[in-house]
Amino acid sequence: AEKNVAVGGVIFVDNVFLGGAVFGDDPKARFSEKQVKVVRQMNAGAYANKNFLTTLIPTDEGLLFAKRIH
Question: b/e for 36-64, b at 16 or more Cβ within 10 A?
Answer without folding.
Answer: beebeeebeebeeeeebebeeeeeeebbb
